[in-house]
Amino acid sequence: MASRVLGTALFRSGFTVQDAPKYGAERRGAPIFSTVRAARGASEGETINERGIIHRPDLVVVADDTLLAIPAAGTLQGIDPDTVVLVNSRESADTWRHRLNLQGELLILPAGSEVEDRADLPHIGATCAGAAACLLGVIEPEALTTAIDEELGPLGEEAVAENRENASAAFEAMIAHRGIVTEGAAVPAKDYEPPAWVELPVDDASIAAPDIRAAANSVQVRTGLWRTLRPVIDYDLCGKCWWVCSTFCPDSAIAVEGDKPVIDYDHCKGCMVCVGICPPHAIGSIPEYLAQQREQQTIEEGEADGTDPADR
Ligand code: SF4
Ligand code: SF4
After folding, report:
1. Which residues line ligand 2 (CB under 6 A)?
2. Three-state SS letters, 80-121
3. For 209-223, what is each residue's pLDDT tens digit?
4. Is residue 231 lining ligand 1, measured as CB closer than 6 Å?
């Protein structure tokens, strides 16, 4: 919602815009992010041809500061000393600057009051959009409220009024820093590495498209194919507190064999919850394509010297 409001506000301010959410692994509580990319020159018909995620952000808004402690969430991926980082937090900018060892500008968007249950946290999409709009310095408050009217109108007058108020308050809270975000240098398309081709295994139709009305067949659906990051347990670091990772895994993809946690990669969606909660940080993450390349290499080496890959 924040990215839609910000994108529409930029569009209403004369920019060509793209905004896109990425929900990651399909589960409640997994990190989500969305991006907004804007180019001047809409009136001259300028288009944005880049379609992927943003690799070098000029502004990062962190709506939930607990994500900063989880490397797998990639919250600060691609930032450089020119990137402005805005964190919704109850802690100070100095505290976060010190913790993250950041060279660039870090600002705090003061978070609301404590809640006992995180489910009771207020929606802060409009707040983030309002603060970002002010920091960009190219959006007038009127364009922001128009964007909220357009995007949230279907939710009713009460929702629109509340979000208008939140966005305006955040805009005002950032007024001392208005326009602090600078436009990053243009990156020629030829400087991007094209992504590698990913082979997806093809399942038999009876497995790939199970009858959704039949009972107890979810185990046949290999949701592990959705994974882009693979959690890997380092058993040398593992403290065998299996009730932690096996309980928190939202897909019940961590079984316990003896006293040892074992990940079921056919059904692990790669949400990275286990990486975040493992007390001794015994679970790391590697890109799925890299994990598959290594597996393939192990199989080929096994075939070459006649050993069973499982023994290697
Ligand atoms: S939570 Fe971490 S340390 Fe505990 S059993 Fe799971 S992998 Fe091992
Ligand atoms: S094993 Fe870890 S990454 Fe995989 S689904 Fe469970 S919590 Fe998520």
Report:
1. 231, 249, 251, 253-254, 263, 268-274
2. CCCCEEEEEECCCHHHHHHHHCCCCCEEEEECCCCCCCHHHC
3. 656 667 777 787 788
4. no
20: burial class by Cβ within 10 Å (0-12, 13-18, 19+)?
middle
Distance CA 267, CA 275 (A): 16
Residues 177-210: tens digit of each pLDDT: 999 999 888 777 777 777 778 777 777 776 666 5
Among 196, 207, 205, 195, which residue's Cα sits nearest to residue 266? 207
Q: Are residues 110 and 231 in the same domain?
A: no
In the chain, the DSSP E strands lie at 16-22, 33-39, 59-62, 84-89, 106-110, 229-233, 254-257, 260-263, 283-287
Residue with token string 């040892």:
260
pLDDT in tens, 242-280: 999 999 998 899 999 999 999 999 999 998 889 989 999
Cα–Cα distance measured from residue 13 to residue 140, given in angstroms and rounded to the nearest whole number: 8
In a domain, 200, yes or no: no
Task: Please name which ligand lies nearest the alpha carbon of 277.
Answer: 1
Expressed as residue numbers, the domain containing 59 is 2-189
Strand partners, 266: none
CA of 25 to the centre of ligand 1 (A): 21
The whole-angstrom separation of Cα 225 and Cα 108 is: 38
46 and 154 share one domain: yes
CA of 29 to the centre of ligand 2 (A): 12
Q: How far apart are CA 229 and CA 235, in angstroms?
A: 19
